[in-house]
Amino acid sequence: MTSFSMKDENTYRNHADVHSDNSPVFPLVARSGRIRKMVADAKDPNISRLELCNLPGGARTFELAAKFCYGMNFEVTTSNVSHLRCAAEFLEMTEDYYEVNLIERTETYLNEVVVQSLEKSVEVLSACETLIPIAEELGILNRCVNAIAVNACREQLVSGLSRLDCESGSAELKGGCLDWWIEDLSGLNIDFYHRVVSAMGRTGVRSDSIVASLMHYAQVSLKGIGKQQIRNPARTNPGAMENTQREIVETLVSLMPTEKSSSIPLSFLFGMLRMAIMVDATLACRLELERRISFRLEMVPLDDLLMPCIQAGDSMFDVDTVHRILVHFLQRIEEEENDDCGYESDGLGSPSHGSVLKVGRLVDAYLAEIAPDPYLSVQKFTAIIEILPDYARVIDDGLYRAVDIFLKAHPMLPEHERKQLCKYIDCQKLSQEASNHAAQNDRLPVHMAVRVLYYEQLRLKSTMSGSSGDGFLSQKISSGIPSAAMSPRDNYASLRRENRELKLEISRMRVRLSELEKEQVVMKQGMMEKSGNGKKFLTSISKGIGRIGIFHGPGGGKQHKSGRKSRASEGRTGRSRRYSLS
After folding, report:
1. What is the C-alpha separation between 233 and 235, in angstroms, rounded?
2. How many Å apart are CA 36 and CA 25, to the nearest integer?
3. CA triplet 576, 579, 582: central angle to 5 degrees?
4. Which runs of consecutive H residues, i.e. helices, occur in 466-555?
5. Which domain of life is it from (predicted)?
6. Rounded to whole angstroms, how far apart are CA atoms 337 and 194?
7. Residue 270 is inside which H or E element, if any?
């Protein structure tokens, strides 16, 4: 409430420089329609005091309006023009009461000075925070918002040549070529900022400039976010500050450009996702961030996935969020495959297939990092393992390492849960080094060790007989021929599935071939060093094969002897023979 005394009117009149002899005795009453009506409607003809309720800008703005009425010098600036314009509207200082009144004076300044400058528009818009809703009704907000967007677009076009010059300049010059208005916008409240960025998107401001502005605004306005949640995560009554932070996070996510060409840094997406979890943002907000991350999951660093869990009594890492990101990623891969109607995309160089392989390695590394968590349940650990398809892993060494770390960190795990974990490991996809480690690993279930030894024996037999696995590959091909009774769509899906399996098998064969070449080099070196003891060398290999056969019954010794006889006959005939375990 602003009080105005008629004595104050006389005071202004005594100090004012009145330029016209025809000026009324009370210029403020003459120029303000509201004050004139209040004086006319007063029951007391000798009224000496008026009260103006809800005057925009308060006493300070009323003082400036009074100075304007009495012709006293003062400067209209970006910090007071919005207050003066709203106060003039409130006081009804229109042209009907006086020529070139305060409304016209402020409107002239807004149209000729403010809207022509991006910086001045931001300052006026920021000053309107306390003038809602009258500033909205007078159109000051819309004019400032549109002026900021238009001037930013104009600055972008003008600075195009400067930006090209910066490409070949120094780092300091490049820093100076960044959009200077980004820092100015960070001073706006979130409602005004939302309107400005939305207008920029409609006007045609570059998406990378908008992303840079979003990142700077988040950095300035979300300092210290989540500290109270970390200190007391069980708190259920959020304060006003946390509600504001939640609104900021949700608004910034909604303002992110939707163009595929816009590259939002993954670090910023993960940072916003952590903040969204801390302030308990809406599910739609978190899902949008997870979806955007899944589009480039193959490029995500491992450290970004290791998000801490803020819920009390849960695991150390937020496994559920990572699981949802993987679900979004696989849905995207499936959509890309369904949209592609040709066979060429299923080649070894397919972008989607390469992305799945990269994500497979990333997930195995993630599993190894979270496995030592003593509070991590086997159900959540298993959910991350089984969500990826089989073709996502060419070699299961990373998965075996993660499972081994989990078993070591959870020594009291029941036997049936150990078996459940180990069933996801394909012993045929373990390297020689991993197989040797698994065969001697006491933490694995017995049936797992037996499987490893069995496939290791098959590998040794294949090595000794010179088999390259072509029979297995041809069997895959022959068994994958779709039936003629299948529909064209099912036929195509079956061919795609078989093609994927063949690619996976070829990748495995390449790895096996590399291992065989290394073994061959080692064997040649050993034979050259012990050229005189070649028979002893072959005998030691046959003994190793015989010892593996012990796990299948007491008849292993006889198989060992017959194996030596068979190899002797094979040396004479040049034929190879396969061994089988009963």
Report:
1. 6
2. 13
3. 165
4. 470-479, 488-529, 534-548
5. Eukaryota
6. 37
7. helix 266-278
**pLDDT digits over 369-381, tens only?**
999 999 999 999 9
Q: How far apart are CA 55 and CA 58, in angstroms?
A: 6
The pLDDT tens digits for 250-294 are 999 999 998 765 689 999 999 999 999 999 999 999 999 999 999
In one-letter notation, the amino acid at residue 55 is L
DSSP-derived pairing of the beta strands 2-5 and 49-52 = antiparallel
SS3 318: coil
Distance CA 128, CA 80 (A): 10
Distance, in Å, from the CA atom of 223 to the CA atom of 576, rounded to the nearest integer, reads 72
Angle among Cα 259, 260, 264 to the nearest 5 degrees reads: 85
Whether the predicted pLDDT of 405 surpasses 90: yes
Q: Which two tokens stand for residue 428?
A: 């045929």
pLDDT at 499 over 80: no
pLDDT at 344: 45
By the 8 A CB rule, do 2 and 61 touch? Answer: no
Radius of gyration for the alpha carbons in the chain, expressed in angstroms and rounded: 39
- The token duo for 267 is 């670090």
Residue type, 149: A
Cβ-contact 229, 310 below 8 angstroms: yes
- Nearby residues of 343 by Cβ (< 8 Å), 6 or more positions away: 495, 499
Range 264-268, long-range pairs (CB < 8 A, 24+ positions): 264/211, 264/292, 265/211, 265/215, 266/293, 266/296, 266/299, 266/300, 266/301, 266/304, 267/304, 268/211, 268/214, 268/215, 268/218
- CB neighbour list of residue 90: distance below 8 Å, 6 or more residues apart: 34, 52, 54, 55, 56, 134
Angle between helices 351-370 and 378-387 (to 10 degrees): 170
265 preceded by a cis bond (ω within 30 of 0): no
Cα separation, 102 vs 81, in Å, equals 10
d(CA 323, CA 328): 9
